[in-house]
Amino acid sequence: MEKWVYTFGAGLAEGGAGDVEKLGGKGANLAEMAGLGLPVPPGLTIIADACTHFYTHQRNFPDEMKTQVLDGIGGIEAITGRTFGDARNPLLLSVRSGARSSMPGMMDTVLNLGLNDETVQGLAHNAEDDRFAWDSYRRFIQMYSDVVLGLDHEIFEEILDDEKARFGHEFDTDMTAAEWQHVTRIYKQMIEDELGEPFPQDPQVQLWGAIGAVFSSWMNARAVTYRQLHNIPVHWGTAVNVQAMVFGNLGSTSATGVAFTRNPSTGEKELYGEFLVNAQGEDVVAGIRTPQSLTEAARLESGYDKPAMEKLMPEAFAEFLAICNRLETHYQDMQDVEFTIERGKLWMLQTRSGKRTTKAAMKIAVDMVAEGLISEDEAVSRIEPSSLDQLLHPTIDPRVAREVIGSGLPASPGAATGEIVFTAEDAVSAKEEGRKVILVRMETSPEDIHGMHAAEGVLTTRGGMTSHAAVVARGMGIPCVAGAGTMRVDFRNGALIGVGVQLKKGDIITIDGSSGQVLKGTVPMLQPELSGDFAQIMAWADKTRRMTVRTNADTPGDARAARSFGAEGIGLCRTEHMFFEGERIHVMREMILAEDETGRRAALDKLLPMQRSDFTELFSIMHGLPVTIRLLDPPLHEFLPKTEEEIAEVAAAMGMEPRALSQRVDALHEFNPMLGHRGCRLAISYPEIAEMQARAIFEAAIAAALETGEPVVPEIMVPLVGLRSELDYVKGVIDGVASEVMREGALEISYLVGTMIELPRAAIRAHVIAEAAEFFSFGTNDLTQTTFGMSRDDASAFIPTYQKKGIIERDPFISLDFDGVGELIRIAAERGRQTRPDMKLGICGEHGGDPTSIHFCEDVGLDYVSCSPFRVPIARLSAAQATIKQQRLARHA
Ligand code: ADP
Ligand code: MG
Ligand code: MG
């Protein structure tokens, strides 16, 4: 018989943290905590496979599941001494979803299940608290109707608001037992009116209804969108947790709260969170009342007048603090926990690895190494490389005066400027038009996620540090100011009202997610400094990684930025970019359009000093580090004059008739320039171009070596080679110039000549090409184009369709196609090294900065990756993680 149900409670558990696939994250960790002997209300977990079964069997539960659930509930009854459905001593249950990876706010939970018109009396009697019982019942009706019966929760909130107002109360907590009972009656009547049948009174019906609803919520629109955004496969399904209720709404000695064991924003080692007295479930994050601080220190800092948990419930607090420490040591990570205090007794309801900002992740990892909790390698492995982008966020220049128009909580760091929009749809359409926006909402919900993705930052006027907006923005790495209570959104009139101002849609604001301030207009920003914990993690990464990290840089500015990000050389300098600048394009045009070699040489003579000074500067910035320079590559047409004006201008400069020049332009026209007269083909047709470039490189190398005192070893890269004879020819030209320049300069310098591997033929013939080539650099942009036969510039017309239809999963221009293009790289690396065992291999396509592609490069044994300057830190970290992964695999093998 298949085991569908796993139980936990009273110090025992059938599963544990290792069973996340089966039990889901929440279930596995509840079991783990129960097994550790921590106070966890007893419960059971229905495994995620049951959800899959549910969908493959016309939404029916597996046969044996029902009995197993009922047996499990029997166990809960035995531990709690209460009986499910019993009128006098009822056991109440929570039914909670819990998938393999946490999907915040995506699935729904039902609390207080088992209440009906009879059991509510028993609950009241047992607790000696009528108010509590009716409060719980009305909550149950609200949640069950929303989650299981599909009634809009706003209808209930409206009724509640009306009744509260009628009774003259401001807060839910002011309501009396009789008043709650009254509200319950109205709720039930409304449900019967809406649905044509009464609210289900039978606890068994409630139970199976709730379990079915959790399974069904796996397919609701929010969950589907979230899965798409986070690449979570549909076949995982969700587990269901059925657990004995504990009550935070049993008066002033009861409470419920959420906490992070360290500060998720800064990483500081301090308990961080909020709690609410006499409350249940999501009251804390829903922003109904302002939550209170956990620690006295946090209370003082926030200036709240209500006491912290530390003061109010010292015993429960001490136990809670001890449990938090224990959990951190046990999981060796910062935890995000939920807890409830029922009449002074602490209960743990959830734990998981806490989401954190990159800044916090760095600090926590570095601190945990110092605390002896984790190793340096583990610290390096824990930082998500792409999240380093977050650190590169600008901050507001502290020296400028700030025009503050409101403030809220500093919910996600960094500053951002943009136009105000009030809806997710407006954010998306503005982004499509290339405009930057700040999404301004009262609060956000999962329906706003696509709008948050499109926005530079998010501002909400309600909600706390653990509100939806705050959690999601931190995850996305975009700045967020949450709960700006001094501001108001007037949705109907499309206005944001702040201190002394009224702004409308389209007005510019700046939010500072690090201070919580909202400013008017655009504000000068500072670029971040990459020191402290960041530098420490990077130092550990650099110590570990096998591959070196170079940069793709065409200008001195790029090269300097890349050096400051830790680049260890230039892997690709595209010389054509140097020819587009300013006056140079004219000379370049003269050269291309020249009618004969003499004309071309005249133009090249003018280009030589410009190229030489470019290279000299690059070499001295790189100070002895390797620099790979690629000879001219682009299709000629990119340089041709297009407008009549341009033609006239060039013609005048060359002393030619515009008409004759126009004809020459036409003659150079190509039908398919990507596969036309480019790459080494140019150097073969016009060797004088390669001669000039080689001369510029060698003269610059000599000049820089003399200037810096460091030997410069230029690496000259010949593009788009398919035949060994092509490389032989161009190499001949380069070698000729080299000996000439060295003789003139009376200085020996060493240099390498190699090639890009960017054509399938080159990859396949790598062993032959390697006889001439001293290094290979994989140009994976072109190699992807030529392997797929897809032009990168035209691929956007069909790649998204391919992805939508499931033809391909990932865009091969962003993430390397391991099976096809990757196989060619493998072949070329292997065959190249057969011929030349110590040959240097690198990658210089866009993929050189993509974490998964970098793992592939490690696997193939490349010597270096090269990427754009801003991706250098990401590549350094990814390369280290790839090495650590290989070492771990080797240890397990
Ligand atoms: P989510 O995944 O949205 O956090 P949960 O299943 O954790 O949903 O539950 C929602 C809320 O209900 C949380 O605040 C949680 O602490 C509370 N809760 C869940 N189970 C119980 C229980 N057995 N007793 C009391 N409160 C509970
Ligand atoms: Mg929830
Ligand atoms: Mg939870």
Automatic annotation (TrEMBL):
Question: Into which EC class is this enzyme placed?
Answer: transferase
Checking SUPFAM superfamilies in the record gives: Glutathione synthetase ATP-binding domain-like, Phosphoenolpyruvate/pyruvate domain, Phosphohistidine domain
Q: Print the keywords alphabetically.
A: ATP-binding, Kinase, Magnesium, Metal-binding, Nucleotide-binding, Pyruvate, Transferase
Identify the Pfam families for this entry: PEP-utilizers (PF00391), PEP-utilizers_C (PF02896), PPDK_N (PF01326)
What InterPro entries has UniProt attached to this entry? Answer: ATP_grasp_subdomain_1, PEP-util_enz_mobile_dom, PEP_util_AS, PEP_util_C, PEP_util_CS, Phosphohistidine_dom_sf, PPDK_AMP/ATP-bd, Pyruvate_phosphate_dikinase
Q: Which reaction does it catalyse?
A: pyruvate + phosphate + ATP = phosphoenolpyruvate + AMP + diphosphate + H(+)
Q: Which residues form the Pyruvate phosphate dikinase AMP/ATP-binding domain?
A: 21-58, 64-299, 311-370
Q: Where does substrate bind?
A: 574, 630, 758, 779-782
Q: Where is the active site?
A: 468, 844
Q: Does the keyword Methyltransferase apply?
A: no
Give the residues the record marks as binding Mg(2+).
758, 782
The UniProt record lists the PEP-utilising enzyme mobile domain at 436-516
- Quote the EC number: 2.7.9.1
PEP-utilising enzyme C-terminal domain: from which residue to which, for each copy? Answer: 531-882
Q: GO molecular function, one example?
A: metal ion binding
Cofactor entry: Mg(2+)
Family the entry assigns: Belongs to the PEP-utilizing enzyme family.
> What does the UniProt record say this protein does?
Catalyzes the reversible phosphorylation of pyruvate and phosphate.
Indicate what this protein is called per its UniProt record.
Pyruvate, phosphate dikinase
Species of the source: Rhizobium oryziradicis
